[in-house]
Design a protein that fits this description.
It is a single chain. This protein is an all-alpha fold. It is 76% helix and 0% strand. The longest helix has 26 residues. The radius of gyration is 18 Å and the shape is globular. The relative contact order is 0.11.
């Protein structure tokens, strides 16, 4: 792919991610949301034809956004783990995970369809999240070493799923803080 075409592709993915973040706020307020490819193209400052040349379907664009944001989240783990005590760094990373999850709410049915089609797999996502969590658990010091990273990921997902809708973010943050407390060495 030519450099200018790659730049335009990246602009479209970034614009779609920003649009989804805005839609996630609307979804929390109870408004019906659906990603508009015309709005994404306008936000990316490209023509709709350019958007479709790179992403022939809404699902292809959403899959690219999902993968980019998951990569960004997971790639941040080593630097965060090296830059602060493991418990503080992990909690910071968990809040970024919440941002990632919040932005996926606007994908709604499209995300479920991507999972159903196999384009996005829960197994791959959990494996990548577990690899990221391992950086914090292996940092030593204040976090227990006997907890598998996959258990932490399962607990994080559980906190997101079980939080009451009317206080989703606040309750999930409290549950993640409790999880960190349980992960600290005694």
């Amino acid at each position: 792919m030519r450099a200018d075409a790659e730049r335009k592709r990246e602009q479209v993915v970034a614009a779609a991610g920003d649009e989804l973040a805005d839609l996630a706020v609307a979804a929390r307020d109870g408004e019906p949301v659906r990603l508009s490819l015309d709005r994404v193209a306008a936000r990316a400052r490209v023509g709709v034809a350019t958007l479709y040349r790179h992403f022939p379907t809404r699902e292809a664009l959403l899959e690219a956004v999902y993968r980019q944001e998951l990569t960004r989240l997971c790639d941040a783990a080593p630097e965060l783990a090296a830059g602060a005590p493991a418990d503080q760094a992990l909690l910071t990373w968990m809040y970024r995970y919440l941002d990632f999850v919040d932005s996926k709410r606007a994908m709604g049915l499209d995300l479920r369809n991507m999972v159903a089609s196999g384009a996005v797999t829960q197994t791959d996502t959990r494996a990548r999240l577990s690899e990221a969590v391992a950086h914090f658990l292996e940092a030593g010091g204040v976090l227990r070493s006997d907890v598998p990273p996959d258990d932490v990921v399962a607990a994080m997902a559980g906190a997101v799923i079980t939080a009451a809708p009317e206080q989703q973010r606040e309750q999930t943050q409290r549950l993640l803080a409790l999880l960190i407390e349980g992960l600290r060495t005694r």
